[in-house]
Amino acid sequence: MSAPRVALITSSYAPHVGGVETHVAEVARALTARGVAVEVWAVDRGERPQGPPPDAFPVRYLPTPLPARRAASLARFARRAPGAWTAWTRAHRRFRPDVLHVHCFGPNGLYALALQRRFGTPLIVTSHGETTGDDDNVFARSALLRRGLRDALAASTAVTAPSEYVLRDLRARFGLTGGVVVPNGVAPDVPADKGIRSRLPSGAYLAAVGRLGRMKGFDLLIEAFARLRERGTPSRAGNGEGPDEVRLVIAGDGPERSALAEQVAARGLTDVVDFLGWCAPAEVATVLAGSRALVVPSRSEAFGIAALEAWRAGTALVMTNRGGAGEFVHDGEDGILVDPEDEDALAAAIARVLEDPALRDGLAAAGSERVAEFRWERVVERYLLLYPPAGTSR
């Protein structure tokens, strides 16, 4: 039986960076390595990567205009929609996919659903937590997306998500029946980036990484860090640190950066909190490897790839319990789970890790052993079990 031809249809792709973009790129590489014909179809957001394509599989950026209620918007959609539909049907006819695999449902999912109806090509939907962790709450605002997601879930041959947390939301609000958990993955090794070391503190520091949006909870971490320093708990062990000996390093960029900087200044933390801005994967790996712990304070987290990155770096993990992390992080064994909206509890969890080197080292060692469970090859193996055989599309 020949391998299916797979179109990975994503809401975002390079040059944009994030969990969805990483997931789709790594899955495409792993499928290609297995001899599967793959194309990535991404929403055209007006930007393209610079330089030659880095991978063997094609990437197509396709327009996804949607109607809106305002007359001007409707007129603009009427002008753009025929050309957009032609681009999508042309991509389908040229590649002839056996499966349309949607990642992070948005306008991309609506066009994939239209292709499924037009050509009969099997549809698979993978939610990355877009219904629970979106700062803009787009599914609450868009009846079109809500209806489209419900229809796509009903029409799909399979629906996956990185956690039961995400699947429960799809069942409760969008009519999903069933659903399969396919965890996220992480590359086994990332070379260190020596250049960023000059921007890191010479002493002990905590790390936080990710997009600086409200759902990621960096404001909660800053408040907890301020309370930790105010409390000034002394070290309980020979080489543990007290709060006044540790800095906080935040790697990432996003819409909340200015507000977070203002919060840091208002809490008198300007001299002990460093904003690194966006960091490449090798830079993130270097930041984590040198930190006492990674803190993930998300208000909602579908999975938390950052947890895997901490484990890979041999770094202790303090992780939100709001979302899917509790499904794979074992509290007290390979990470500390805590409610980040209880800022005193978050401060106490951080203090435990800072002040107890034996606990910190034990968490890091256990995480290092666990990370091998989350290779991208295993992710792809689970997807391949769900893909229909070649030639299924009519």
Automatic annotation (TrEMBL):
Gene3D superfamilies given in the database record: Glycogen Phosphorylase B (3.40.50.2000)
UniProt entry tagged with the keyword Transmembrane helix: no
Pfam annotation, one family: Glycos_transf_1
Sections of the chain in a coiled coil: none
InterPro entries from the UniProt entry: Glyco_trans_1, Glyco_trans_4-like_N, Glycosyltransferase_grp1
Keyword Cytoplasm listed: no
GO molecular function: glycosyltransferase activity
CDD domains tied to this protein: GT4_PimA-like (cd03801)
Domain Glycosyltransferase subfamily 4-like N-terminal: 17-189
Keyword annotations from UniProtKB, A to Z: Glycosyltransferase, Transferase
Domain Glycosyl transferase family residue range list: 205-368
Descriptive protein name: D-inositol 3-phosphate glycosyltransferase
